Amino acid sequence: PLHLAERMQRLGTETAFEVLVRARALEAKGRDVVHLEIGEPDFDTPGNVIDAAVGALRGGFTHYGPSAGLPKLREAIANDVGRFRNIQVSPDEVVVVPGGKPIIFYCMLALANEGDEVIYPNPGFPIYESMINFSGARAVPIPLREERQFRLDVNELASLITPRTRVIILNSPANPTGGVLDEQDIHDIISVIGDRNIMVLSDEIYSRLIFEGQHFSPLSIPEFRERTILLDGFSKTYAMTGWRLGFGVMRPDLAAHIARLMTNSNSCTASFTQMAGVEALTGDQSSVTRMCEAFRERRDLMVDGLNRIKGFRCLRPKGAFYVFPNIQGTGWTSQKLANALLDEAGVACLSGTAFGSYGEGYIRFSVANSPENIQKALDRIEQWVNTHV
Ligand code: PLP
């Protein structure tokens, strides 16, 4: 028998990848499926970024680099993060890692002891809960509710903080809800934390995909700077999911410890990929604006379409590229509805419960697909609902 370590039982998963496999299996049998399950831009990586990677490969960026990232990229990230949030950021606060996800993993390993508590959004990105549990800490969900446009309730947050709370995870704009925390929300959260020694892991991977208002980060609050860890990356902003390039911004002493975890696991992030990252940040930004505009139009198409379908009620998210309709009016549970839409209507989506127990009553559609495909999905859902709800 396989003697698996006990910790493996605490490891969760990201259902999107499993649904994608199921959808592909249906396609292999000749079925047509509209893919609204996976959270990645359908756009290709901008050409200037690809050219930079090819140039870097030819130019010898094929060797090991420093664990914390190439100095040139750390500097470009420090400048970009600082400019976007109107603050000064130093390169020694930056750690480059393969994607945004490793920052979650490494921060849990570096900051949470067995028995410590980590508060995380629910419904939220499923990797938070998985990584907290894996680290041995206790995962404490903070519910996000539709009545508050899926912004957390600070009174509820206050009631969840204990002397064992070490980290609070925030995600704005959020996956799966598209909810956005505004400046006041962030200030309220910071004041509830007060002078406790609690770190905030602020996952801002969708910060450039915002449709209303302005992005605000706890990193911009000077007295909270030392307790903020920013997570961001290239996957969503520059349509670079497959490149595996992300970063954290944090106090330099913690950044050095995260770099030690890198030394022990990845050695470094791929060197030519990092050079492409420099071009992404310093080159032409018009593709970012173009993609954001496209996601806004698709969001509107999807939200308006869903709100015309019996049993669906959908808020208009302010950021990211997901919509998270309330489906309680259909009389179906989330998982059953998501399965039926894939198997019977040919529309792949995710059950709200894939994002935690508070996701019951909702399903998630990614709108990172063409307007034609989104319309096709809406037509199929409507037709299916007319005979099953
Ligand atoms: N954080 C959130 C909220 C996400 O939705 C995702 C990707 O889906 C990530 C982090 C991870 O991004 P990456 O692909 O760069 O690891």
Description:
There is one protein chain. By secondary structure, the protein is an alpha/beta fold. The chain folds into two domains: 6-44 and 287-388, Alpha-Beta Complex (Aspartate Aminotransferase, domain 1); 61-282, Type I PLP-dependent aspartate aminotransferase-like (Major domain) (Aspartate Aminotransferase, domain 2, 3-Layer(aba) Sandwich), CATH 3.40.640. 41% of the residues lie in helices and 13% in strands. The chain contains twelve helices and twelve strands. The strands form three sheets. Strands 2-8-7-6-5-3-4 form a seven-stranded mixed beta sheet, with helices on both faces. It has a three-stranded antiparallel beta sheet with strand order 9-12-11. A two-stranded parallel sheet has the order 1-10. Strand 5 (165-171), helix 7 (183-193) and strand 6 (199-203) form a beta-alpha-beta unit. Helix 2 (47-58) runs antiparallel to helix 9 (271-282) and helix 6 runs parallel beside helix 7. The longest helix has 22 residues, at 286-307. The chain is globular. It starts with 14 loop residues before the first helix and ends with a helix. It binds pyridoxal-5'-phosphate. Pyridoxal-5'-phosphate is lined by residues 39, 99-101, 125, 171, 175, 203, 205, 233, 235, 241, 246.
